[in-house]
Amino acid sequence: MVTLRRTRAIVRHPPHLKRTCMVALLVGIWLSAFNVGGQLLAGPWDLPLAIKIAMNVLTPFTVANLGLVSRQVGSESDEAG
User: Fold this and answer.
1) Cβ–Cβ < 8 Å for 16, 68
2) Which distant-in-sequence residues (6+ apart) come within 8 Å of 59 by Cβ?
3) Per-residue model confidence as pLDDT tens digits over 61-72
4) Longest Cα pair distance anywhere in the chain, in angstroms?
């Protein structure tokens, strides 16, 4: 079982963080353009729009990190078993 401390270490490891941030940025831009592109072009930019954009970036960041952590934990359990 993975601990919170181990999860934080995996997520904060600089090469991992760089990769997951890049994925989040690229996918977040795509999702924002696809989901709220009309609002971005037409305006106004308000708090609900900012929250949607933030969620469009945080969602792939979370998914990328979940995949990373599950891969790390899976490889550790494969080596142990």
Assistant:
1) yes
2) 28, 31
3) 999 999 999 988
4) 56
